[in-house]
Amino acid sequence: MNRKLLYVDAIVDYRGVVASPGAVLKEGNTILAVGTPQEIGTPENAPLTQSEGIITPTFVNTHAHLDLSGRGNVPAKSSFLEWVREVVLPIRRDEEGIQNAVHAGIKLIHAGGSAIVGDIAGSIKAASTAQASARFIISYVEFLESAKELCAMQQLLQELPEAFDVSPHAPYSCGAHTYEAAFASNRKVATHVAETLEEIEYTLHKTGPIAAFEKQIGVWNEQEKPWGMHPVDIGLSAANGKPFIAAHVHYIEDRHLDMLADSLCTVAYCPRASEYFGHTNHRWQEMVDAGVRVSIGTDSLLCLDTPDRISVIDELRLLYRRDNADPRLLMKMGTTAGAIGVGVDPSLVAVAPGETAGLLLFNSMAGDPVHAIMNSTEMPVWL
Fold it and tell me: What pLDDT, in 10s, does the model give residues 200-243?
């Protein structure tokens, strides 16, 4: 492969500014050297490209639904359950459209500056399509319980191809049997946790709108008792010390901060999806301060405001503007925290010697390069 030498205004990753001005010597997907132009010099057989811009690694999307990318952006409904019934369920029943939706989602993810994705696949077909199309997609095949599956979950997991990981949908749609089987499978696990207040009511008492919704769509199980626990307690108890991704986690109690910090859980926070569904005051900063690993996801294209991309960068910029978040912390949340969450080597998303999952070039702006990335409204280009 041909070597390339890049001179740029700055290099930024989870550590902040790595070099300014910066130089990167790469060969294919391998970074050979990083530093200032003076440190790297002009190695032989390495054509020089000099650009005005800021190099970063690819970003990690810890929680996405690629198979929901076919309809584009959809206006919010009056409730989460109405959205599930009127928007999501018809998409999931359209088996012929799954492949096109996944392909569209991958293109939009790439346009958004991510190469590593934790994808919640609604079917094996969706997972197969995704993994055949891109290298760094971690496919979590989603399971929802039905009366038939209650006695067959272990078998279903045994029959699942080894390439795929698993996602018990949520504590309100899966019981203890499913969670036990998922964590016993030795696959990576991702699950939705504490996404709505209705979920908490359901897991504690098996009452409220979710119970009514189950009866309406014919999946109510009269014999199944309520968990009697908060969804965060359910997730941590089921994991029993194993790593997993907890998506959303909008509603926690104070005691959960230390519990999450002491676990191997990665919280996948999706800021724009959270706003779309009307959730406010997410405690992500308190989680980080307590030592919880918080990463960034996008959820699905349905609930985003960018029809041309699915981008973690947009999520980080929202937190920067809205919450006055530290841009260096945001870089970590959008790269290495997510990589650890989906179980890939975090060095893949550092601008350092070794293999890289991809490099991006942002336009330069005046001032600190990390702040410049967050202040900008422009998307980067791939190098």
Answer: 999 999 999 999 988 888 888 888 899 999 999 999 999 999 99
Domain 3-57+352-382 in CATH 2.30.40.10: yes
Per-residue confidence (pLDDT) for residue 94, from 0 to 100 = 86
Q: Does domain 59-325 have CATH number 3.20.20.140?
A: yes
Sorted by sequence, the CB contacts under 8 Å of residue 228 that are 6+ apart come out as 203, 204, 205
Strand partners, 58: none
pLDDT band at 148 (very low <50, low <70, confident <90, very high): very low
- What is each CA distance from 370 to 6, 8, 16, 98, in whole angstroms? 19, 14, 7, 38
Q: So what's the pLDDT on residue 150?
A: 47
Tell me whether residue 10 is exposed, middle or buried, using C-beta atoms within 10 angstroms of its C-beta: 0 to 12, 13 to 18, 19 or more: buried
Residue 338 vs residues 59, 115, 204, 253, 315: alpha-carbon distances, Å: 8, 12, 30, 24, 13
Model's pTM, two decimal places?
Answer: 0.95
| Cα separation, 35 vs 11, whole angstroms | 8
Q: Residue ranges of the domains in the chain?
A: 3-57+352-382, 59-325
Amino acid at 268: A
